[in-house]
């Protein structure tokens, strides 16, 4: 599957173990190099916001990468009625988030940015976002606090992880499951091909 990107060093500009595992699922062993750039964006719509933040992360890392590197940046948010939820600051905020999601359908947006480092200060990239609808069963206060006590919600957008214990309250999803975990794998695979293949074909033509 990864033959198309052979020769390219792939860097994930994120410390998320979930994103690393997703990439490994499709045969990509990324170098982990998280961006520490301050996350600030001017966009207000969830999809545009996550794309902008993903680009900020990818550009930060790509600026110091050598030629032949493909950098992947990503950002995920949860939105309910247009209100954006990032990671909870504390357990009380996690409780508020989960209480608002319980018994409702919300959206998860993951923005992804790809940057090819071509050398001599030249870069080429693309960005996109995917949206998945997630329906949650009603939850009692006791269930919410019990889930928070696991510690799982504290580093996740919307205060839950669909791949973890919160699966007990997922009623259904419409869209890409992997997108909720942190990377829209199917879209990412095809976008990487669309970005890399023209350069591989150009190099092949130069050789011939």
TrEMBL record:
<feature type="site" description="Important for substrate specificity">
    <location>
        <position position="163"/>
    </location>
</feature>
<dbReference type="GO" id="GO:0047429">
    <property type="term" value="F:nucleoside triphosphate diphosphatase activity"/>
</dbReference>
<keyword id="KW-0546">Nucleotide metabolism</keyword>
<protein>
    <recommendedName>
        <fullName>dTTP/UTP pyrophosphatase</fullName>
        <ecNumber>3.6.1.9</ecNumber>
    </recommendedName>
</protein>
<keyword id="KW-0963">Cytoplasm</keyword>
<dbReference type="GO" id="GO:0005737">
    <property type="term" value="C:cytoplasm"/>
</dbReference>
<keyword id="KW-0378">Hydrolase</keyword>
<feature type="site" description="Important for substrate specificity">
    <location>
        <position position="18"/>
    </location>
</feature>
<dbReference type="Pfam" id="PF02545">
    <property type="entry name" value="Maf"/>
</dbReference>
<feature type="active site" description="Proton acceptor">
    <location>
        <position position="75"/>
    </location>
</feature>
<dbReference type="InterPro" id="IPR003697">
    <property type="entry name" value="Maf-like"/>
</dbReference>
<dbReference type="GO" id="GO:0009117">
    <property type="term" value="P:nucleotide metabolic process"/>
</dbReference>
<feature type="site" description="Important for substrate specificity">
    <location>
        <position position="76"/>
    </location>
</feature>
<comment type="similarity">
    <text>Belongs to the Maf family. YhdE subfamily.</text>
</comment>
<dbReference type="InterPro" id="IPR029001">
    <property type="entry name" value="ITPase-like_fam"/>
</dbReference>
<comment type="function">
    <text>Nucleoside triphosphate pyrophosphatase that hydrolyzes dTTP and UTP. May have a dual role in cell division arrest and in preventing the incorporation of modified nucleotides into cellular nucleic acids.</text>
</comment>
